[in-house]
């Protein structure tokens, strides 16, 4: 369903290219005084309102499936030993009501969701937002030209402000940057844990309905049914949600309406007095009367807000206003009615707490509700699995996860991806959790631990967002942080008591993923530092002369490097060991920026290295963490198109012909393109945004060039060089890649040797090669090996 909504936005809101979901701007568009425009604005408002309702409906299936299936298992996990006093049910219901109000409604829907990175949510999106407002990125590959991107939004503040002081405090010490990264990775790993635990507890709870209606059935049959559903669910991931996504929203909407209606039925039939739980007095009475057991039961109550973290992670699909509308109109009231109805039933039937949801269903609609519950559990699982795939892709873009195969599952929506390796790992772990624990209680304890840690990480990141990005007053920051931490730390302390009862599972899973992510990031950082410190000086290159001391053979050599400036060490290693080099050499750097996407027209940054007769260039391909490499020849074709365009523009810059380097970054206007294409000899005026650069700096320069009869010499030079490049391309393109082996020094500590020589080496061995990522033919690939020690 979300695909259709996104396509409609593309067709009807072309002017809103930078912010696809910016409905609020349409709704708040100022009224013109002319009568004709008033009618147009009215129509736009009407269209926006209808579109908002449609997107709110679609968001139910993608965003709220996980939160909506919580009534399946909350009361059982709250009272695993049974209910001793009916008043405890009222107290637990009161806690659920205020937990739903404080965390999902107030904190996430109305505050945290506004802290999105151009519509992208999740901990890594918050980290990207922080990286743009402070230099906290641990891999220092940023450049001033990156800030000129249209998607590189950031705010500035006064040097003496509290935000500026906080920024300097973060930037001054490397261990603070590392600590921030580890905090983000912890939250990310816990969300991955959700991708394992959500399908386990949702599907197992839904499948448990079979045993309720058939009491003689063995519990092992329920496990088998749940495992079969999980295997089918993960096996169908390669089709993507594009094929079945249109079903999600109707299923979840029907689910919410059913549980809300059943709740009203149970309140009227059993005990309407449960509505007194809306008074916070019963929270105090419950905790006072329950003592330690009452406090520990908070771990079960917290499951009522699970799925809230997925709400923020799945934010990219819909505008904030649509998510707010869906939650306040449908999700929130239906959940309150569902929990109130179960509480009313349990007050009169304390012994049915194990299967409270299914026991409270009227017998006449039992099996239809069972089927819809199972379908809703599958939808909830699908949302968290898809979010896990996106998180893995984002982690890779930040240099925190090995290269894995990424498959596009939708031609219409680029964000829908499938990661086969991660999918099968999730399936195996999910089946192990389901079959190993065999009951909801222990899985619920594990689930609660993962969710509360994600919420704590989000709160801590929100502190920095409010200071650096929103520049809120410190009183508001303290108020938000204090209220959030009081609630979440209370829940966190409660789940700590259940670490030995299943709560250790997400800690082990997250610990394993954290080790993988941090070790990979450490190895990536050390490789970058090695290339930076060992790059070749420009003086040495110029000293070799135009032939570079070698035979220049026809063809183009693409030398892949992680450096966005300077000549990499592998190039010197190459030319000192081989007798020949290609006529044209292009150093290619693929760099990920802390933005969600880089527009195609701004993708490539082209520069010349050394004098013109050296025929050496650099091309930096810039990507956002949502951008994906397509497995086709587009990358190479666009790279050469940018190179040829650069040469043609350079020949027009007579006044800059003595420069060592030129740079072109995709900000050409349509006028400049028209000027380039018009070669009939007439005078053509063009304004081109280009940059005059050196090795260490790039200074933007606005150049106005007039091409006419007086520019025939430069035009001839341009044609000659472009023809030469085309002939070299026809002669053949060779991809030269560095095969760098990282080793720990002999005097290194044992844990560093384990991390570098074993874990990182193993990850490098099993991850995908760069040549596979870029679809480089084996006959055109040349690997240059080198070893360095850290």
From TrEMBL:
GO terms for molecular function: potassium ion transmembrane transporter activity. GO terms for cellular component: plasma membrane. Residues 1-23 are annotated as: Disordered. It comes from the Eukaryota. InterPro entries: K+_transporter, K_trans_C, K_trans_N. The keyword Transmembrane applies. It is a multi-pass membrane protein. Residues 554-787 form the K+ potassium transporter C-terminal domain. It is found in: Cell membrane; Membrane. Its main location: membrane. Residues 55-541 form the K+ potassium transporter integral membrane domain. Keywords: Ion transport, Membrane, Potassium, Potassium transport, Transmembrane, Transmembrane helix, Transport. The chain crosses the membrane at residues 47-69, 89-110, 180-204, 216-234, 246-267, 325-345, 365-392, 413-437, 449-469, 476-497, 503-525, 537-560, 580-598. PANTHER family: OSMOTIC STRESS POTASSIUM TRANSPORTER, POTASSIUM TRANSPORTER 10. NCBIfam families: kup. Belongs to the HAK/KUP transporter (TC 2.A.72.3) family. Potassium transporter. This is Potassium transporter. It comes from Linum trigynum.
